Amino acid sequence: MSTPKIRTTAYRFPPSLPSGPTFGLQVTQLTGTYVLWVGVLPSGSEELAVLPQLDPLRDEEGGGSGGEVGGGGEEAKLGRDWAVGMPPRGSLPPVGTQLLRSSGDDLALPLAQRLARRFGKQVFLSVDVGDLTAGGMMGMGAEGARVVMDVERGLVRVLQALEER
Prior knowledge:
single chain, 165 residues, alpha+beta, Ribosomal Protein S5, domain 2, 28% strand
């Protein structure tokens, strides 16, 4: 019997728009579960690995320190919008619940459910997009919606690469 492994990797999403923020992603991979944090990185985080090459910032087996992502002066918030999605069973849709929500944002829950359906695993997702979605999803402009879609595409690409390992 093999011992379960915990793998932690972190990535940087380059801005999709010239004025867009740089996002960071930290993935903790467990057996049948992903724990994901995605958020706006503070300025000065250019030394982190860039997503397109899928080179991890760090890749630690057995767990990581769980410290601040990206360094710098501002700290991103772990629990600004946090949810869990469970994969579907049979013909039932994926289920999920909001674990913590500190604003009108409702990004984590539907995204966690979509990722759980797509990858067939439990997904804990924390999203901190700062003021990008001020006023909730409905109040977000076209630029904010595009950035959020790009972040979702980046998440899917990273998880697909991890599934192939």
